[in-house]
Amino acid sequence: MNQMIASWRHVFKLDPDRPLDDRALEAVCLSGTDAIMVGGSSGVTYDNTVDLLSRVRRYEVSCVLEVSDLEAVVPGFDLYMIPIVLNAGHPDWLIGQHVRAIEKYSYMIPWEQLIPEGYIVLNPEATVAKVTAANAGLDAAQAGAYAQFADKLLGLPIVYAEYSGQLGDLELVPAMRRTLERSRLFYGGGITDAESARRAAAVCDTVVVGNAVYTDLEQALETVAAVKGTR
């Protein structure tokens, strides 16, 4: 596993398509979070990605790009996270788009900087669930099977429990974590304050906080200490 991601407990995810003023960005970058992940489900362009990267680079925090649109791939990030939606209803989100990207850009791909993520989408109402036609209504046994598939058969360094916009089933998430031996379990969705962050941190390896940055910055900042204090 990449040593950088192996140490992450808390990550802020910033959307290039959502406005964030300089004061708020400074607070996020100096918060003590382990990394800034740049990405979004829609509206991500080369220009707004470049702009956000240049602003984050004023600070020393690690900055990675979660690739959701090939036209928005920007050089200069520390790592490039490549989502593979394991429970997608269309093969394009498992392998199709990835193969087309390699066919077109293989000569310029920085392979040593790529980190694949095995997404398991668990909120049927999320944009990502609709875009990928994900089978998001999984029970604990099914979610655990997807996680084990990612860990044991695919050898993915990250399994990502994605609830995107709602606090997930924190009884189901541990069922996924118990199946993992090598993969790191990321959790994203519905982290709005210190309490929800602590609850999520207790059942995963890395907590990703996104929407709260834009809806209640002070509460979002409190999630860092909440997660770092949980083991």
What does this entry look like structurally?
- 42% of the residues are buried.
- Strand 2 (35-38), helix 3 and strand 3 (62-66) form a beta-alpha-beta unit.
- The chain is globular, with a radius of gyration of 16 Å.
- By secondary structure, the protein is α/β, with parallel strands linked by helices.
- The chain has an eight-stranded parallel β-barrel with strand order 1-2-3-4-5-6-7-8, surrounded by five helices.
- 36% of the residues lie in helices and 19% in strands.
- Helix 6 packs parallel to helix 7 and helix 8 (194-201) packs parallel to helix 10 (217-228).
- The protein has helices at 3-6, 22-29, 46-56, 96-105, 127-132, 140-153, 172-178, 194-201, 212-215, 217-228; strands at 10-14, 35-38, 62-66, 79-85, 114-121, 158-162, 184-188, 206-209.
- The protein has a single domain (7-229), classed as FMN-linked oxidoreductases (TIM Barrel).
- It has ten helices and eight strands.
Q: What tags apply to this protein structure?
A:
231 residues, alpha/beta, TIM Barrel, 8-stranded parallel β-barrel, 10 helices, 36% helix, 19% strand, globular, heptaprenylglyceryl phosphate synthase activity, magnesium ion binding
Give the secondary structure arrangement, pairings included:
Blueprint: H1 3-6, E1 10-14, H2 22-29, E2 35-38, H3 46-56, E3 62-66, E4 79-85, H4 96-105, E5 114-121, H5 127-132, H6 140-153, E6 158-162, H7 172-178, E7 184-188, H8 194-201, E8 206-209, H9 212-215, H10 217-228
Parallel strand pairs: 1-2, 1-8, 2-3, 3-4, 4-5, 5-6, 6-7, 7-8
